[in-house]
Each structure stands twice: as structure tokens, then as C-alpha cells.
Automatic annotation (TrEMBL):
<dbReference type="InterPro" id="IPR025161">
    <property type="entry name" value="IS402-like_dom"/>
</dbReference>
<dbReference type="Pfam" id="PF13340">
    <property type="entry name" value="DUF4096"/>
</dbReference>
<feature type="domain" description="Insertion element IS402-like">
    <location>
        <begin position="2"/>
        <end position="65"/>
    </location>
</feature>
<protein>
    <recommendedName>
        <fullName>Insertion element IS402-like domain-containing protein</fullName>
    </recommendedName>
</protein>
<dbReference type="InterPro" id="IPR052909">
    <property type="entry name" value="Transposase_6_like"/>
</dbReference>
Amino acid sequence: MLAPLLPSHRGRGRPPRDERQVLNGILWILATGCPWRDLPERYGPWQTCYHRFNAWAKDGTWERLYQALLARMERQRAVDWERWCVDGTSIRALHAAAGARKKGDPLPNRLTTLWAAPAAAGARSSISRATRAGRSPRSV
């Protein structure tokens, strides 16, 4: 049913991987939420599934598959348009999950001199200002 809706291979080069295998790999990723690199080997290389997913999104293949499945379900009266639900599930994430600073984390080092103007810092010296002034560094 779906095979006629998938793009056919055109051009030269290596024959494409089995479309059904690639489609199953893409559906596995979408169902599990796993990263592409964790795709089981039985679906072929993750790169193939990833690139095919993107290509099918750009050329409208996913929309054609959706419309065909919806039409088939309507013919079978498997869709009840009187009942529907919108799922707005969301999970609140902590600020730290987005990369915010956590309590107790040290502040990042702040540059006091721009790299573009190193002369603004003055001459380099291996001794501190307190030592040059004749005081012990602890009395500063």
C-alpha cells in the first residue's frame, strides 16, 4: 500500500537500500525518541534513515503517506470525527536543564582586557602591584 507513494530511485550509482527497511527505521526513531545514532543495525545505517527522513519531509512524501493512510482509515470507518482529543502534554524542566547556572557554580572568568587592545593593560610584569610598592601581598 505504501510502496507506490515512496519516491523511486533515479540516477546512477549504488542501488538504494530497501525502502521498507528505511521506513521501519525512521518509524522506530519516531516511536522511541532515540537519537539517530542509536538506530539498531537491522534498519541499516542511521545516516541513510536520517537523510531519507529529511528528503521525504522536503519532497512531500510524509504528507502523501499521511493522506493515503487517512483515506484508507476513513473507508474502513476507523476514524470517528465526533471524538477527538488534543494532547498538550508538557513537562516543566528546571532552569539548569537548559544550561542555566546552578547554585554554587563558580562564576566564569571575566576578561579585563580585550584581546584586540592588549596595550591597554600596560606593560607585562611578573610581580604584583603590592610587591612593587614595597608592601607584602597580604597587607593589600
